Amino acid sequence: CEEIKMTMQRHPQSLGYSKEELNRLNQAIQRLTVDVDRAESQPTLCQASQSRSTPEEEGASGSAKGKLAWLEAALKQSRQDMARQLREYQELMVVKLGLDFEIATYRKLLEGEERRLGLRRGAESLRKEKGSASSVCLPLPGVVSLLGGGAGAGSDALETSTPGCSGSLCGSPGRVKEFSCRDF
Questions:
Q1: Same-domain pairing of 113 and 145
Q2: Taking Cα atoms as reference points, which of 73, 113, 112, 89 lies closest to residue 23?
Q3: I want to staple 53 with a disulfide (CB 3.0 to 4.6 A). Which of 57, 113, 149, 178 is the partner?
Q4: Does the pTM of the predicted model rise above 0.70?
Q5: Where do the record's region annotations for Disordered lie (predicted)?
Q6: Do 98 and 153 fall within a single domain?
């Protein structure tokens, strides 16, 4: 339960970071595209007046070409970064969907066990049957099964597979209840 919760907390932060990074890269690409368009129009102006060019103008044209090459390389790098970020985002979405499915599956399993055991709202209200000695064993987080007898024979007691365990029951946000085996 805790591992799934921690994973879900990490992934939304990563998803938010990836979205922000994608937006930032898109803005950078737009700025670079404008700069490239501007730089591409500059050599055209230089070519039109090339018959009157001087050595100084030729140096300026060379620096514009150098700047254009640099801008094109930066644009290419930004596009590669954006593609990488998009792949990472898609991978995170696949992980998120898998975790959502797993959470839904465990929630349904837990609800089925709660119905079978007569529990309402998680472990808050365990209906105790009159005259029968039963105990609840929690071998895995969120999985509840009824055992008859055991160490609690003759009294209604909860047992766990790990002595003195504590943790929380899984469920929807309104159903999470902290427990300690000694509390029961």
A1: no
A2: 89
A3: 57
A4: no
A5: 40-65
A6: no
Cα separation, 165 vs 137, whole angstroms: 11
Q: Report pLDDT digits (tens) over 129-166.
A: 444 444 344 343 443 333 333 434 343 333 333 444 44
Complete DSSP assignment for 17-67:
HHHHHHHHHHHHHHHHHHHHHHHHHHHHHHHHTGGG--HHHHHHHHHHHHH
* Token pair in block for residue 74: 């930066």
- The conformational region for residue 72 under phi > 0 = left, psi -120 to 50 = alpha, else beta, is alpha
- Residue (of 124, 136, 127, 125) closest to 160 by Cα position: 136
Residue 178 belongs to what domain range?
134-183
What is the number of domains present in the chain?
A: 2
The answer as to whether 125 is a domain residue is: no
Report the candidate in 168, 150, 167, 169 with the shortest Cα–Cα distance to residue 159: 150
Note whether 102 and 37 are same-domain residues: yes
Indicate the residue among 117, 147, 165 that finishes a domain.
Answer: 117
- Read off the amino acid at residue 129: E
